[in-house]
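Reviewer 2 asked us to include a model.

Predict the structure of this chain.
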Amino acid sequence: MSRRMWLMLMAVVAGVGVLGVFKVLQIQAAIAQASSFQPPPEAVTTIKARPAEWPATLGAIGTVHAVRGVTVSADLPGVVESIAFESGRNVREGEILVRLDTRQERAQLAAAEAQRDLAKINLDRTRGLVEQGILAQAELDQKTAEHRQAEARVGEIRATIERKQIRAPFTGVLGIRQVNLGQYLQGGAPIVPLQSLDPVHVNFSVPQQQAGAMRAGGEVQVAAEAKGGETATGRITAIDSVVDEATRNVEIQATFDNPTGRLRPGMFVEAHVRTGATAEVLVLPASAISYAPYGDSVFVVSDMKGRDGTTYKGVRQQFVKLGAARGDQVAVVSGLEAGDEVVTSGTFKLRNGAAVLVDNSVQPENSAAPKPEDS
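Predicted model (structure tokens):
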């Protein structure tokens, strides 16, 4: 009985051993097959890095300010009698915007004019009597002073009436009306904003290291996203004399002609200032750059050898130093050579040594001055 059990046990062990050997051979074959597997090439587009002369520029964020801008307000208290403007319209300097009720002042003016006329009559009568030697010179001096006081009182009331006709202090564009007919206004109460939009200032800040490159009269270009990326060209008119202690930046002010009013006070703009001579850089479309915290890179296409010794078209990751951007283009300062074939689309799915299939039938945008339809 025990002999049969030993034979059965040996048969089981032999069977397990055969299965184990078979499985090991299967796994080794799978590993060998996987190691020799070459993934299919990724479809990409490419471009040859080409040199170009780019001007040295400095970009900054700016804000548009009116050369002259105020909130027109009431000089004296009073009730709004009439409103002579519409919100948002253009006005000329001196144009009446609001009239306040002046009935009381006009009544006072009538009384003051009557008092002035009486003082003039008394002055003339006293002058005649003094010339005849009937009255002393002191009487003439007294009547002269009274007449002048009456004249001054008339002028004061007329000035009060004039101050209750609120006029535009300069030519510009009105904002939204902030008063209503019949409303009582306190002295200094706002009526309507008024901005002069031609020309306008653009204020922006540059690092103190770049402040030395700023020159009065230097050319500045700004682009406003709110206007579809349209650009305008102006000149630097002022450089602040102090450096901001918090940011270590220097504020620059540029002036722009703005006949169409496309630049509005408070608008955010991107300013670009030319800081030096042109420099030769390699130009690539922005889609070719892989941005990362540890460094920006591109994928360069070249001939590579696989594990089996065969040659294929693959990519290597190359870290680069970037310069300024212009439209769809980015300047590469270092890390590439002219003529290098660089991947321009499909970079997100690549890795070092990956095989690629170049198809340049459709290329990404690569314009220095793009005009997108949707902006």
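Residues 111 and 158 are 12 Å apart (CA to CA). The chain has four domains: 42-54+278-358, 59-66+197-277, 75-98+166-188, 102-163. We have added this to the supplementary material.
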